[in-house]
Amino acid sequence: MSEFTPAPIKPIAGIAALEALDIRAGTIERLEEVPRSEKLMKLTVNFGDHSRTILPGFKKERETRERSKDARRSLS
User: Fold this and answer.
1) In contact, 45 and 51? CB cutoff 8 Å
2) Residues with Cβ within 8 Å of residue 44, at least 6 apart in sequence
3) What is the pLDDT of residues 17-53, one digit of tens each?
4) Model pTM greater than 0.85?
């Protein structure tokens, strides 16, 4: 196996860069499968003053996680 070389550390972001970000926390109200898609899930997220539909590509990761949870339940 080859030796691991970590990526170089990036310079510290200044306060102006942080002020430019729009970070919001929301509550996932609904999670649906997208028909005929192997990757997409449809999330409805409530941000308090508005809701938004988001289409992340994590269907396979979610299925893997659900299967591992089921496997752990069957072992107990």
Assistant:
1) yes
2) 28, 29, 30, 51, 52, 53
3) 989 999 889 999 999 989 998 889 999 999 999 999 9
4) no
